[in-house]
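Per-record layout

source: Candidatus Olsenella pullistercoris
name: GntR family transcriptional regulator
length: 250
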Amino acid sequence: MRTADETIKATPPKTRAVEGILWYIGSRGMEGGDRLPSERDLSSELGVSRTALRAAISQLESRFVLESRQGSGTYVCARKPTFVLEETCSFSEAVRRAGRVPSSRLVHARVHATDERSARKMGAAAPGSVLEIRRVRLVDGAPASIETAYVNNDRYPELARVDFAHESLYACLERAYGVRLAHGTDRISITRVRADEARLLEVACGTPAFFQETVSYDEEGGLIEYCASVVLPSKVQIASTGGAPRFERW
């Protein structure tokens, strides 16, 4: 059996440096915006080489735990909102839970005939016309995701009059039609941000992102919404507990 010292020595230097940085952040209660010590001081504190430390910082930057600011140093990133697929949690709730401020910007809300994409996603329940609602979700005023929702306009015609820059889709459905979300399905993949999405998200075209598709149903099994979201992993985390899904979208 290895001793503790032998185990430490067998661990790759970069891995020890990563674990050391995370320990340092946690043990000192550091939060988003706090600055790490200089490379020289931190490598000495953790007992790792500066080469291993730089590699660890680079890895933690790719995981959005740290960010380096030219001429200023390395800082802890602000805590990201986490959306757990099985939880009943709105966008606003998840953002506030992370100690951040949520908001939304309406791109458009318009009625049009069901196109090939929305018909395919909505399946047999596809309506003749849909209300398409596109919004940019913001965290602390910075774009985090784009949500494009398709709602059955034949079934919910009054929704076309709602100002979705300030109103919740599901609150309106419950208030006007007595409809509540009961269950749904999520599918998540990886994509790269298109030029039009890049402008809305204020990132470079081709930036990696999550692509999330959600189909939601009411208590009678009626289709409520198909929603496609482009989500920046630098701003938001998506997680799963592996349990039965229970979710709600703001």
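summary: The helical segments are 4-10, 13-27, 39-46, 50-62, 91-97, 116-122, 169-177, 195-201. The chain has a mean pLDDT of 85.
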